[in-house]
Write a structure and sequence with these properties.
One of its GO terms (cellular component) is membrane. The chain is an all-alpha fold. The protein has 2 domains: 185 residues, MFS general substrate transporter like domains (Growth Hormone, Chain: A); 217 residues, MFS general substrate transporter like domains (Growth Hormone, Chain: A), CATH 1.20.1250.20. It has 21 helices and no strands. It is 73% helix and 0% strand.
């Protein structure tokens, strides 16, 4: 991931960037004190600093400096990683909170005295909460920026986790109280899950945006993988459920605290896209529905995110009827996500350098659909090898696709602010995920299969996956020729003139 954002210089941006560079990247307090103008004249302060540094030794030299053409400068700041790390932590814990009970659905149902279908509502309600709050998320990110959104998420995560723990401890487990806490955490998720594109656009250069978006966005499924892998060891039987919820609440609290100390925005923009004027929220909501290419990304993105959410939530119930243990299912979920993270770590920097968004999208989409097709027959093998291999392929394709699609969406929808398109896509994915969970739960049982088999549900998933395959393959053709690179070059040309 390149950290070099420097390009052309403008007087206004150079003054501001130079001042900030002194504060951000040097420890020479004496130089700053000597060069600063206590009457607020920044221009003279910068001139003094540049003379001291050897950039100019005369008033004529400074005159030459002030007469430089007014062209933009783009640079990045080390402090951007502070916010990125905080986004990663919050996305990990909010996803961990989402899937807290899924890997131990059988034990949880016994502890709370409800059915496994009722336990599924911990996941389903969480996803519906995302949809309910999404309009406020768009407004918050658009008007308040990523920092405000992150703080809101941190407060909700803190409150929701401790309500869940109180409900788990009270009277041997009060299902309704735990569900209320789960819903509050669900309201927190979109504030951090929709923030990565906005944050990377605000803080990172063109050569680092895809990687930044990938790291922050894919931290969310990483949290799901950790939940799938670790929570079965925290709750080895019914009596371990309260301790499992307590440990999760402590981790979530620790991850939430640094949010209040984040910088709000960089002093100067990191790229042409970031420097360009954005449409207002009203204008953006009018412009976006007229962009035909938007739908070719929005629909498959929503479907595949929804399918991933549904399969992640029901993975234990998919494998359990065929003799797999909760630990086996948890390992399958971990493989699904860890292999995906490794693949994305390889693919995202390559896309950052080459800008080959479309080839990656058009390769990954059929691969995802093929994986869901093969998954239909994997539980019946009753061995872990087949399911683990399919989960690995599905994870690699899904995770390579996700950040690439999000960043491509930013380019083809510009000058619509990135949080608007990304929040709409994530909302579609969460809504479909909740719907898919309900449908798959209703499709349990199949003739000639073990009791509780989800083979029919997996067939449903595969059919839906293949129905949307043609849509992204149409990108770049006919009325969908609007490509990200064309938009990027247009913006760079306009900003530089």
């Amino acid at each position: 991931m390149s950290l070099d954002g420097g390009r052309r210089l403008s007087t206004k941006y150079l003054l501001r960037a130079t001042l900030d560079s002194r504060e951000d990247d040097t420890a020479d307090a004496g130089m700053k004190s000597k060069a600063s103008d206590r009457d607020g004249h920044e221009l003279n302060a910068v001139a003094t600093e540049m003379i001291a540094d050897g950039h100019s030794s005369s008033s004529a030299g400074f005159a030459d400096f002030t007469e430089m053409p007014d062209e933009p400068v783009y640079r990045v700041y080390k402090r951007r990683f502070f916010g990125l790390i905080q986004l990663i932590l919050l996305n990990i814990v909010v996803s961990w909170d989402w899937l807290t009970f899924s890997p131990v659905s059988n034990s949880a149902s016994q502890y709370f005295g409800v059915s496994e279908s009722a336990i599924n509502w911990f996941s389903t309600g969480f996803l519906f909460a995302f949809v309910i709050i999404s309009p406020l998320v768009i407004y918050t990110l658009n008007q308040g920026g990523p920092k405000t959104s992150i703080i809101v998420a941190s407060v909700l995560v803190f409150i929701g986790n401790w309500i869940r723990y109180a409900g788990t401890r009270a009277s041997g487990g009060v299902f309704g109280v735990v569900m209320a806490g789960q819903m509050i955490i669900g309201l927190a998720q979109p504030f951090v899950l929709s923030a990565p594109t906005r944050y990377s656009n605000l803080w990172f250069s063109d050569s680092g945006r895809v990687s930044a978006t990938a790291v922050a966005s894919l931290a969310n499924p990483l949290g799901g993988a950790l939940a799938q892998l670790i929570t079965p060891f925290w709750a080895t039987d019914v009596s371990g459920i309260p301790s499992m919820v307590l440990y999760t609440a402590i981790l979530s609290t620790v991850a939430s605290l640094p949010s209040f100390f984040l910088p709000a925005s960089p002093p100067t923009p990191p790229s042409a896209i970031a420097a360009d004027n954005r449409l207002s929220l009203r204008q953006a909501l009018h412009e976006l529905p007229t962009n035909a290419s938007f739908y070719l990304v929005f629909i498959p993105f929503s479907v595949y995110v929804g399918q991933f959410n549904a399969v992640s939530s029901l993975l234990n119930q998919i494998f359990e009827p065929y003799g797999f243990s909760e630990t086996d299912a948890g390992i399958a979920g971990a493989i699904l996500i860890v292999v995906g993270l490794v693949a994305s770590a390889i693919v995202s920097p390559i896309v950052d350098r080459t800008k080959k968004y479309l080839p990656v999208i058009k390769i990954c989409v059929p691969t995802v659909a093929a994986s869901y097709l093969v998954l239909i027959w994997m539980p019946a093998t009753r061995t872990v090898i087949g399911p683990y291999i399919v989960c690995a392929v599905l994870g690699a394709a899904s995770f390579s696709l996700l950040p690439c699609a999000l960043e491509y969406l930013v380019l083809i929808t510009h000058p619509v602010s990135p949080e608007i398109s990304s929040t709409l896509c994530w909302t579609g994915g969460q809504l479909l995920g909740a719907i898919f969970i309900l449908i798959m739960d209703a499709l349990k049982g199949a003739p000639g299969e073990p009791e509780g088999s989800m083979k029919r549900a997996l067939i449903f998933e595969a059919v839906i996956a293949w129905v949307v395959v043609p849509l992204p393959l149409m990108l770049g053709y006919w009325i969908f020729k609007r490509t990200g690179l064309v938009r990027l070059r247009s913006v760079e040309s306009r900003v530089s003139t």
